[in-house]
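About this split. The held-out portion is used to measure sequence recovery: a designer receives only the structure tokens and must propose an amino acid at every position. Recovery is the fraction of positions where the proposal matches the reference. Here is one held-out target exactly as it appears in the evaluation file.
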């Protein structure tokens, strides 16, 4: 037996496919919203931590780079006259 109205069956199937696609789209939108919020929270936490890390590294007493640079004493030989000199770092 042939169906009574084939176009009605196609329309019903098309509506079912559209409804299924819309359901999947809604699910993925919820997943994207949750991931967006998680990454935003991670960003909000990471930015101040990074700034504090850079500030503390700059102001640390152990990492006083200027003091370390002025204490360099490397004897080096001059290529022309073979005299020893100390590098001058200002």
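Reference sequence for scoring:
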């Amino acid at each position: 037996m042939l169906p009574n109205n084939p176009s009605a069956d196609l329309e019903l199937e098309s509506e079912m496919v559209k409804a299924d696609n819309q359901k999947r789209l809604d699910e993925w939108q919820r997943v994207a919203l949750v991931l967006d919020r998680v990454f935003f929270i991670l960003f909000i936490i990471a930015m101040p931590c990074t700034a504090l890390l850079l500030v503390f590294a700059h102001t640390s007493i152990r990492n006083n780079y200027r003091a370390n640079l002025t204490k360099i004493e490397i004897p080096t030989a001059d290529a022309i006259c073979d005299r020893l000199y100390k590098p001058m770092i200002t």
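Annotator remark: The two ends are 99 Å apart (CA to CA).
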